[in-house]
């Protein structure tokens, strides 16, 4: 509606009638993504709240979780700015979604999301390396995928910063970078999940308590890997099937939150996992690792109590199976990274 038409309507006392403009092609993706990501932010906050009051981790791990949560909240704030600009401040302006200012907000959010995913993937890659149940080259391959996804993700952001427009996302160069970024991220999550599943599976001892804990770890790891991989693959599919729209934003707004929620949820699940173990009475733990260990032995000398032996940087949670005459037995078990576990017999 022109300015003169609006002026005439006001002067004549008749109400101004806005045209019915369909903006779904421009705003469907960002709007749906904003709604879903805001809901997921609630999940991030809940998991962070539980972590604050239930963790006994080293300060380094606590700081890592805090940084991830704060970065993820920042992405939601930036997404809110985008929605406010396009749907409130410049309501009805079909060109606002492709304005340099709006795109820059989206780019900053994308850069933060890529960084969050990179940090989470490096964290899980380090767990695979510490477990030492798979060849070291697999850990190296995981790091290669994580770094590659991070670098190509930044390439996409840099290209758009140089030329902040929707057309930039439709260029062949940007499409290739985008595809490589999220394909490598998906591959990284798949390999991490497979490596962790294999590590937990081959670490089973035949002891009911230990194997039960490992089975629970298998379930949590598989769930996390499936969710993270599905998000990355969906983002690639939606992007390449809807190049002329921003429908991909519906998935892109949520990817960092899925990574943060699944990571912190796994950290929070440790207490629940150990409460299910029949040999565990109380647990103050950091991240879970598997390593070679000695059995905890119940003997007349210790009046039926368990002894736990320090291993490298952590303490061991061990399953009791035999009596004092088997004190030389060696087996596999669960190591709690940089934390102490209190256990007693519950037979």
How are the elements arranged and paired?
Elements: H1 3-11, H2 24-54, H3 59-89, H4 100-131, H5 136-162, H6 166-169, H7 172-202, H8 208-241, H9 249-275, E1 280-283, E2 288-294, E3 310-311, E4 314-317, E5 330-336, E6 341-343
Antiparallel strand pairs: 1-6, 2-5, 3-4, 4-5
Helix pairs in contact: 2-3, 2-9, 3-4, 3-9, 4-5, 4-7, 4-9, 5-7, 7-8, 8-9
What does this entry look like structurally?
The chain has about 350 residues and is of the alpha+beta class. It folds into two domains: about 25-270, Rhopdopsin 7-helix transmembrane proteins (Up-down Bundle), CATH 1.20.1070; about 280-345, no CATH class. It contains nine helices and six strands. The model is unreliable at about 1-15 and about 280-345 (pLDDT under 50). This is DUF6534 domain-containing protein. Pfam families: DUF6534. Keywords: Membrane, Transmembrane, Transmembrane helix.
């Amino acid at each position: 509606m022109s300015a003169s038409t609006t002026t005439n309507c006001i002067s004549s006392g008749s109400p101004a009638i806005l045209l019915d403009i369909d903006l779904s092609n421009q705003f469907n993706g960002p709007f749906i993504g904003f709604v879903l990501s805001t809901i997921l932010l609630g999940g991030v906050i809940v998991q962070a709240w539980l972590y604050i009051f239930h963790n006994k981790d080293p300060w380094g791990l606590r700081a890592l979780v805090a940084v991830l949560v704060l970065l993820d909240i920042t992405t939601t704030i930036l997404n809110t700015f985008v929605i406010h600009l396009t749907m409130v401040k410049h309501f009805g302006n079909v060109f606002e979604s492709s304005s340099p200012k709006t795109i820059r907000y989206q780019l900053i959010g994308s850069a933060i999301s890529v960084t969050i995913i990179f940090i989470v993937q490096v964290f899980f890659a380090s767990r695979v390396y510490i477990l030492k149940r798979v060849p070291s080259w697999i850990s190296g391959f995981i790091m290669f995928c994580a770094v590659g996804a991070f670098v190509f993700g930044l390439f996409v952001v840099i290209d758009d910063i140089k030329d902040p427009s929707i057309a930039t996302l439709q260029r062949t160069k940007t499409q290739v970078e985008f595809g490589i970024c999220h394909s490598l991220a998906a591959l990284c999550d798949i390999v991490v999940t497979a490596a962790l599943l294999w590590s937990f599976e081959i670490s089973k001892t035949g002891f009911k308590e230990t194997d039960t804990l490992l089975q629970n770890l298998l379930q949590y790891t598989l769930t996390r890997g499936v969710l993270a991989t599905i998000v990355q693959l969906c983002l690639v599919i939606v992007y390449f099937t809807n190049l002329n729209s921003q429908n991909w934003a519906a998935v892109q707004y949520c990817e960092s939150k899925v990574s943060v929620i699944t990571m912190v949820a796994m950290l929070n699940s440790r207490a629940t996992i150990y409460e299910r173990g029949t040999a565990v009475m109380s647990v103050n733990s950091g991240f879970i690792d598997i390593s070679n260990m000695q059995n905890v032995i119940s003997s007349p000398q210790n009046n039926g109590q368990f002894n736990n032996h320090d291993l490298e940087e952590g303490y061991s949670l061990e399953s009791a199976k035999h009596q004092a005459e088997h004190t030389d037995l060696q087996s596999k078990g669960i190591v709690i990274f940089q934390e102490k576990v209190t256990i007693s017999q519950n037979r």
